[in-house]
Specification:
- With about 240 residues, the chain is of the alpha/beta class.
- Helix content is about 45%, strand content about 15%.
- The protein has 8 helices and 7 strands.
- A 7-stranded parallel beta sheet has the order 3-2-1-4-5-6-7, sandwiched between helices.
- The longest helix has 23 residues, at about 100-120.
- The radius of gyration is 17 Å and the shape is globular.
């Protein structure tokens, strides 16, 4: 994809990896639209980066996803890049009393929302690129995040199919595959020892400039190249 002169929607673009993408795409001379549930957090980003366009949207709500698409189609019909980044991670056990309720929340946000958004946004004649944020856990799960890991395995598989299915529409599909990074995903403090988002963003933009469509870093890069034996060993290390 061209890295400049795009109009880009980044879901969950006000924090974590989404914010890192927002900042870097701005630096590359793009127009960036971000959406999220927390109006105050969106405002903080807009105050810091006045060119950013914000939209409050709860992507777990189907009607709000449709409203987001209709607003983009009416007000930003030249949008050409969709970044499916928003996601939630919950550390839990299948024996927890509220496991199923929380599992449904993750499935809704991590699977139903990006699949629905993709099916909507490919109707924009201007769309040239879909970028999906999956995870190194798509390749070998962390059992403390059993549903999150499963949703990312689904999203990785879906992205592979999507790349093939959208060839006829000349829409490029890029998979962003992060490892654990120093964000609040899963809860504050859980990933404090992980690499900073800035290092990840630098690495994947270097790969984008090389024309790659599967972007990885550190642990996730190792997982994308791993043999079955490597994946088994990684699983055993992660889940002693």
């Amino acid at each position: 994809m061209n890295l400049s002169n795009n109009k880009i929607l980044i879901t969950g673009g006000a924090s974590g990896i989404g914010l890192g993408l927002t900042e870097r795409f701005l630096n590359e001379n793009n127009t960036v639209i971000i959406c999220g549930r927390r109006e105050a957090v969106l405002k903080e980003v807009a105050d810091k980066y006045p060119s950013v366009i914000t939209r409050v949207c709860d992507l777990s709500n189907e009607a709000e996803r449709v409203a987001l698409y209709e607003w983009i189609a009416a007000e930003h019909s030249d949008l050409n890049v969709l970044v499916n980044n928003a996601g939630i991670q919950q550390w839990m056990n299948v024996t927890d009393a509220d496991f199923y309720t929380r599992a449904k929340e993750e499935i809704n946000t991590n699977i139903e929302a990006p699949v629905h958004l993709t099916s909507l946004f490919i109707n924009l004649s201007s769309l040239t690129t879909v970028m999906n944020v999956t995870s190194g856990l798509a390749f070998t799960p962390l059992t403390k995040t059993p549903v999150y890991s499963g949703t990312k395995a689904f999203f990785h598989s879906f992205t592979l199919s999507l790349r093939y299915l959208l060839k006829s529409k000349s829409i490029e599909v890029v998979e962003i595959i992060p490892p654990a990074l120093n964000t609040d995903l899963g809860g504050k403090g859980i990933h404090d020892a992980a690499p900073p988002v800035s290092d990840f963003i630098e690495a994947i933009f270097a790969q984008l400039k090389e024309g790659k469509t599967e972007l990885s870093f550190g642990f996730s890069e190792a997982m994308t190249k791993a043999s079955q034996e490597d994946l088994k060993n990684a699983f055993n290390r992660m889940n002693p």
